[in-house]
Design goal:
The complex is a heterodimer of chains A (382) and B (352). Chain A has 382 residues and is of the alpha+beta class. Chain A is built from eight helices and 18 strands. Chain A folds into three domains: 15-194, HUPs (Rossmann fold); 229-281, SH3 type barrels (Roll); 285-379, Elongation Factor Tu (Ef-tu), domain 3 (Beta Barrel), CATH 2.40.30. In chain A, β13 and β14 (321-327) form a beta hairpin. Chain A starts with 14 loop residues before the first strand and ends with a strand. In chain B, strands 1-7-6-5-4-2-3 form a seven-stranded mixed β-sheet, sandwiched between helices. A three-stranded antiparallel β-sheet of chain B has the order 8-9-12. Chain B is built from 14 helices and twelve strands. Chain B is globular. By secondary structure, chain B is of the alpha/beta class. The chains are: A alpha+beta (382), B alpha/beta (352). The interface between A and B is medium-sized, with 28 and 25 residues.
């Protein structure tokens, strides 16, 4: 039997908005809400032109996901609307994605989408619709703490998406609920099958929805031609090793695909967006002792010291590691890793945790090298 | 239509069943032709106004000039179609139309009889008169019109006219392209001699009979009844200081009202009304269900942030006093709630 869910402080019968992507997760979340007796309104956002994204000129704007979301909503007997968010998605997410690459950084567009699209604009629409809550199919847990709702990692560590929600504010969190946070992905699929949802056997979605073929360079260089400008690949020691095809194709920490053969294993150490230059070096040079963060969001206790020992996750697919955090008044922060970390890439999110609880995070603006070979200790890519 | 559904014959067959089916099909055609006051052989059955528009534009020798407020099945039917601007009041200026048609050397002009979003009626008669003296043909999309405005094909002076049965209570999947005297159609669909070689494919006999019956059922009284209901609805909402009714002082279809609630995005209003059980539209409905921006209001020169607040209220033969009251109650409630919420009304989608 599917679990019986209940949203904290939202009375049964209240109107709630579920963000439906057309995938299994949000479809199951919608089904659980409907079964729990809420007045469920499904909303699917049209974020980009599916025909243009897949290079099929003249294809209709609707991708398969929107049709799937409608089918699920019809199956559940709930009202469902498709909202045109193309323009705001383009400015708030896609252009930011390209601009970040052009600065020599590696963006995390899903964070921007959650921050600016789902939990800002869609949340406002949900309020305007008279809803008591916005519900999503994210694998994160909302835990009612003594000082209000807290954001925690999902029960299923393999599916945890809290990293992508680090920009969520207290006010947003108060309005948002995540009924899948306690489920394992296998349970979600089982529930979808039990309820006969039309998407029960649908495959997982790609990493970046608006780059369905995975080739982001083409999109980035169309929007930011400078990111596709060829430039030098230089060794930290000053040697010119070759040319690259545009910085959009590189990420700090990357080893494969550099196209230079010098007999030693080389890694991308830094990307200089201004000079269109890729700096490479040995593995030891990829280690960072510290990182400067900007646009820091903080969901922990307001009072107390601005410096504390926490765990940080500086990439989506790496475990959290211990670090010291110093928050500054200007919205920036400095993270000092207890042990040097490799692959700390500007543009990525560095997210703070204590145990399962998410305390906030910031964007990595710069790293401080740990290896003696790192020039000038600070690599400032802009 | 029910009787026609029981016909087993194919109107093209030579046997008795086929003859009976053919007789019914020609009865339907004659009935429609009579309603339009044209000869029966002027009526070509097609699958609906989308096909009729495509078929009409395929007749053009040379470029097509289409008004900017046409349905996509006109605007996108042939590549390179030129856009004829409309004036701020939503109407094509006949003099400008004639001048542009002459300047561009186009072979066909398309101007709809009345717009689907605003209901505003176009000066088609005057346009037809001006084009005729220059030997330029005119196609008129009248899909929106039967049952909502009285008209006669012959009086319009147009060369082609598109109709869709489901718009006035007939079945979906049937419509007609009506051609002026002496005009033979070049087919889009080939591979069969049906419809005097103008449109290949077995005729949709039950739908054609439904088409004819629905057209015959249209009454002058009904048009007046709907117009009165619409005017009552508009009089009620016009009392709000933030409501604008587009084209209210223009000749319009009886059933259409384009209402703008300033500062409230139309997609939000459409959703709120739907959740109250009131179905209205906004902009052009994409096949995804996405509520897209209105190219009609944009063509009228309305700024995007204003155009994005316009909803389209359509009345039909099932609309009565109770439906008008329900709309007004829901509109009042929603407007009150959204106005009471400072800063929370969604701005136009242009902002981020």
């Amino acid at each position: 039997m599917p679990p019986r869910i209940s949203l904290a402080a939202v009375p049964v019968g209240a109107r709630v908005v579920i963000a439906m992507s057309g995938g299994v997760d949000s479809s199951v979340a919608a089904a659980l809400l409907a079964r729990a007796g809420y007045e469920v309104v499904g909303i699917t956002l049209q974020l980009y032109d599916h025909g243009a994204a897949t290079g099929r000129e003249g294809a209709c704007c609707a991708g398969r996901d929107i049709r799937d979301a409608r089918r699920v909503a019809d199956h559940l007997g709930i009202p469902h609307y498709v909202l045109d968010f193309e323009e705001r998605f383009r400015t708030a997410v896609i252009e930011d994605f390209a601009a970040t690459y052009a600065r020599g950084r590696t963006p995390v567009p899903c964070v921007r989408c959650n921050e600016r699209i789902k939990f800002r604009d869609l949340l406002r629409t949900a309020r305007d619709l008279g809803a008591a809550a916005l519900v999503t199919g994210h694998y994160v847990r909302r835990v009612e703490g003594r000082e209000g709702p807290e954001l925690h990692r999902a029960a299923d560590p393999a599916k945890d998406q809290s990293y992508f929600l680090f920009r969520t504010t207290r006010e947003q969190l108060a309005f948002c609920h995540f009924p899948l946070g306690d489920l394992r992905k296998s349970e979600t699929r089982r529930i979808a099958a039990e309820l006969g949802l039309p998407v029960a056997r649908k495959a997982e979605s790609q990493d970046i929805c608006f780059v369905p073929d995975g080739r982001h360079e083409r999109l980035v260089t169309r929007l930011r031609p400078e990111a596709g400008k060829a430039g030098e690949i230089r060794h930290l020691d000053g040697r010119l090793l070759g040319r690259h095809r545009g910085i959009a194709g590189y990420t700090v920490g990357q080893r494969r695909g550099l196209g230079v053969a010098v007999g030693e294993r080389l890694y991308v150490i830094a990307i200089d967006g201004g000079r269109h230059r890729i700096l490479v070096g040995p593995r030891a040079a990829t280690l960072s002792a510290a990182a400067v963060l900007e646009e820091v969001n903080w969901l922990g206790r307001e009072e107390g010291s601005a410096a504390c020992r926490i765990e940080v996750q500086h990439r989506y697919n790496t475990p959290a590691v211990p670090a010291f955090l110093e928050r500054r008044a200007d919205g920036r922060a400095r993270i000092r890793f207890l042990l040097p970390e490799s692959g700390v890439a500007p543009g990525q999110a560095c997210v703070f945790y204590i145990g399962s609880r998410l305390l906030g995070g910031g964007w990595i603006a710069a790293t401080e090298g740990a290896a003696a070979s790192a020039p000038g200790e600070v690599v400032e890519p802009v | 239509m029910v009787a026609a559904s029981e016909e087993v014959g194919n109107p093209s067959s030579v046997h008795g069943f086929g003859r009976r089916a053919r007789a019914r099909l020609e009865d339907a055609r004659e009935s429609i032709a009579e309603w339009l006051d044209v000869a029966p052989d002027r009526v070509t059955f097609v699958s609906g106004a989308t096909e009729a528009n495509n078929l009409a534009l395929a007749q053009a020798d040379g470029p097509v000039l289409a008004s900017a407020i046409e349905h996509p099945s006109v605007l996108e039917a042939v590549p390179g179609t030129l856009r004829l601007p409309v004036e701020a009041d939503g109407r094509v200026d006949p003099e400008r139309c004639e001048r542009l048609a002459a300047e561009t050397g186009c072979g066909l002009v398309a101007v709809m009889l009345a717009n689907n979003e605003t209901g505003i009626v176009q000066p088609v008669r005057e346009i037809a008169r001006r084009l005729r003296r220059r030997g330029i043909r005119l196609h008129v999309d009248a899909a929106q019109v039967p049952g909502r405005l009285e008209f006669a094909f012959a009086e319009l002076g147009a060369d082609y006219l598109a109709l869709s049965a489901h718009k006035f209570g007939g079945p979906p999947g049937i419509g007609a392209l009506v051609a002026g005297p002496g005009i033979e159609l070049r087919p889009l669909l080939r591979g069969g001699g049906q419809e005097r070689r103008s449109r290949a494919g077995t005729e949709n006999l039950p739908a054609a009979c439904g088409f004819a019956a629905a057209l015959r059922a249209i009454g002058r009284e009904e048009i007046r009844r709907i117009a009165e209901l619409r005017d009552r609805l508009e009089a009620a909402v016009a009392g709000y200081p933030d409501v604008v009714i587009i084209g209210r002082n223009r000749p319009r279809l009886a059933n259409t009202s384009c209402i703008l609630l300033a500062g409230i995005a139309a997609d939000l209003l459409v959703m709120r009304l739907d959740l109250e059980g009131v179905a209205v539209g906004a902009g052009a409905a994409c096949s995804s269900g996405k509520m897209a921006e209105s190219h009609v209001l944009a063509a009228m020169g309305l700024p995007r942030e204003i155009a994005s607040c316009a909803i389209r209220v359509s009345l039909g033969w099932t609309t009565g006093e109770a439906e008008i009251a329900a709309f007004l109650a829901a509109f009042r409630k929603i407007r009150g709630e959204l106005r009471d919420r400072p800063g929370l009304a969604n701005p136009a989608p242009a902002t981020t």
